[in-house]
Amino acid sequence: MTATLERPRTGGSPVIQQRQRAWRAMLFWIATHSVGLALGIMFTLPVILVLLTSFMASDQAMTSSFWPESWHFENFGEVFERAPMLTYMINSLVYSLLAVLGILVSAVPAAYALAKLKWRGQTWAFMLVVVAMMLPPQVTIVPLFDLWVRMGLTGTLVPLIVPYFLFDAFSIFLLRQFFLTIPKDYLDAARIDGCNEFRVLTRVVIPMAKPGIAAAAMFCFLFTWNDYFGPLLYTAENRDSWTLSLAIASFRGMHHVEWNLTMAATVLTMAPAIVLFVFAQKSFVKGITFTGVKG
To answer: 163 near 99, Cβ under 8 Å?
Structure first.
């Protein structure tokens, strides 16, 4: 009995083989990135829904129809007519930018002292930072509110901004973890050259820690930009000090909610944060990546 061996078929012309390889590569990419694609779609759909609703008519918003029957670009102009959105946007910028400045002034030196200096009680001080970070803000809000009322500063942005110039536990913790990744040899070399601790911090540590500082600043900006509880508590009595988060709530009436205008105001509120993240995402991701390298 004789067996005949056949050559394997090549599968067609080179063009067909190239298409098959491209198809298999695409299927492999989809399989390996399926979880990321699913999460991306899940987080993107609400943003798309908000954007589409902002262009709808009032009677179509929040119905079963997801696509605008007619595009109403005038909704964004009506938002500025109904409320002083420019003033609210300036208030939000003042609140967020001064809060970021506050953590740069207070958290950076504190994190440097916890990460690169040796002093008595350092471990206990770091534990205090961790405990303060886990402490719910509702625990301290009553005595703090009473303090600001006695000082006559409610109705302004001062009670929201000043705490960031004094102590922000999360920013200190985040920067301390990043400062630990900076090799000690650079600091010792600067000290040998005659630099004091302030110059070591400003000339060596801060330039090398720009990604970590950018990450902490962006966390602070996004939190304060979207903060609703703080402005509601301290500025609700004075509309001139309202932020954008409170302005969105002003489009809700007692018996009717104008969802198209609410979504238009929401789009205006989201836009600066999205633009900031697009331009700063490289430093943000790098800062988060290096933060957990060394404990």
So the answer is: no
Where b means 16+ CB within 10 Å and e means fewer, 93-124 reads bebbbbbbebbbebbbbbbbbbbbeeeeeeee
Tell me the angle at which helices 122-134 and 85-116 cross, rounded to the nearest 10 degrees: 150
pTM: 0.79
Distance of CA 237 to the CA centre of its chain: 28
Quick one: the chain helix, strand, coil %, rounded to 5? Answer: 75, 0, 25
User: 291 near 178, Cβ under 8 Å?
Assistant: yes
> Please, which residues bridge with residue 257 across strands?
252
Rounded Cα–Cα distance for residues 73 and 251 (Å)? 17
Asked if residue 72 lies in contact with residue 56, where contact means CB atoms within 8 angstroms, the answer is: yes
Q: For residue range 102-121, list pLDDT tens digits in order.
A: 999 999 999 999 999 888 98
Top-level class of domain 76-291: mainly alpha
Alpha helix positions (H), 117-192: 122-134, 137-151, 158-166, 169-179, 184-192
Query: 67: phi > 0 → left, psi -120 to 50 → alpha, else beta; which?
Result: beta
- Take residue 204 and report the two structure tokens written for it: 């060596």
CA distance to 115, 116, 132, 134, 235, per residue, from 122 (Å): 9, 10, 15, 19, 37
C-alpha distances in angstroms, 126 versus 41, 149, 152, 182, 261?
A: 40, 31, 33, 18, 46
Q: What secondary structure letter does DSSP report for 252?
A: B
Task: Read off the pLDDT of residues 167-211 as tens digits, 9 standing for 90 and up.
Answer: 889 999 999 988 988 888 889 898 998 888 899 999 899 988 888
Alpha carbon distance 93, 87 (integer Å): 10
pLDDT > 70 fraction of the chain, expressed in percent and rounded:
89
